[in-house]
Write a structure and sequence with these properties.
The chain has 204 residues and is mainly α. It is 76% helix and 0% strand. The protein contains twelve helices and no strands. The termini are far apart.
Length: 204
């Protein structure tokens, strides 16, 4: 039996939630987390503060939703599915580089707000930590796929996961872009080539 389509009420609720998250994203990036109130977010989204609480929750719940927003806007589920279906070790090894590039391309404002604010705001540090957990988990899936295809080089699998995660860390990518002026293409190309060199028996 196919799942029923969302009702009009459910679609409206989702649209409201999406607009609230977009407003929170804009304000966190512009003002910082500490200087943004739920009332500010509600005003920007064109809803009441109570609607924000009913739709998403507290300000901490709002910021905690940013990792899901990053996953959606960067298209991470689709990139992960494509990796799982690939038999090309070189393409597999480059998956995390593509994901990191996509995050930076579509969500650099969120990443910048999280990275710069985490030291002072425990809520932002928690979101950054959850993003890191997902990043390591994704690296683990890629290494497992390479191992299943007998394409992983002589590197220990646990070390391979950490190596891939380090090479494609979004904070590293942000530094390459903001401090060194690297383009998105250059960042992705370097991360992909480095991942192949370190993980595969025959990277070229």
């Amino acid at each position: 039996m196919s799942e029923s389509s969302p009702s009009l009420r459910e679609r409206k609720a989702q649209l409201t939630r999406d607009e609230i998250l977009r407003a929170a994203r804009r304000l966190f990036a512009e003002r910082g987390y500490a200087r943004t109130s739920v009332r500010d977010i509600a005003r920007s989204a064109g809803v009441s503060a109570q609607t924000v609480y009913d739709s998403v929750g507290s300000k901490q719940a709002l910021v905690s939703s940013l990792n899901d927003l990053i996953d959606t806007e960067a298209g991470i589920p689709g990139l992960a599915r494509a990796a799982a279906e690939s038999d090309d070790p070189r393409e597999l090894a480059a998956t995390n580089a593509r994901i990191t590039r996509s995050i930076l391309e579509h969500c650099s404002d969120i990443v910048h707000a999280l990275v710069t604010g985490a030291a002072a705001e425990p809520e932002l540090a928690a979101v950054l930590s959850e993003g890191q957990r997902r990043h390591l988990e994704g690296a683990g899936r890629i290494v497992a796929l390479l191992s299943q295809r007998e394409a992983l080089g002589s590197i220990d699998p646990d070390e391979a996961v950490e190596t891939l995660a380090v090479v494609t860390d979004i904070r590293f990518a942000l530094a390459l872009q903001e401090s060194y002026g690297w383009s998105l293409d250059r960042i992705e190309s370097w991360m992909a080539a480095t991942s192949r060199t370190l993980l595969l028996d025959q990277p070229s």
